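Let's practice the habit of predicting before peeking. Look at the sequence and jot down your guess about where helices and strands might fall. Then scroll down.
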Amino acid sequence: MGKIKVTACPIEGLFVIEPTVFGDERGYFTETYNSRDMQEAGIDRLFVQDNQSGSVKGVLRGLHYQKEHPQAKLVRVISGSVFDVAVDLRGGSPTFGQWHGITLTADNKKQFLIPEGFAHGFLVLSESAQFCYKCTDFYHPGDEGGLAWNDPAIGIEWPELEGTYDGTPRADGWHLSDGTPLVLSERDQKWGPLAETFRF
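Done guessing? Here is the structure:
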């Protein structure tokens, strides 16, 4: 029924996917996932798990990845707005350490396909947000790795986020432009920078 528009991002393997939306005076209908449409677009993935999280404004989750069981992810937002980021961690990739970000909202209905070998994170820009994603592998406790969200070597330009880098990933002193404080988990305030995490 629905078809998708697939746009390649500057980093190979990343795609923005936009579903067809049918709207009338009642509201709208869209297929949020259709494996046949994905395969016809050249994207062949077997997703085994769906996850959903809810977060308030100023929450930053990331940058996360699984070390021995890497996951491809198809992410979207069903309420609110987030800035979603992927960082290339593929060994030998010409774009290793580079990032790409996209604003995902309930209104634009865009989806972000992140292949295996990337770290992932997002910042909530709205009062709250519901974030959903499909994974190609299951979550494995103890296998998760992470990177400092504000590592200058990666240089992610988080929208609306203000603060001064003090050499650590702590949230202290960081806030959105409207004064909303940055909120990070204890774990996400301890990840190291890219150069210390990946040594080739």
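How did you do? Residues 35-40 form the longest helix (6 residues).
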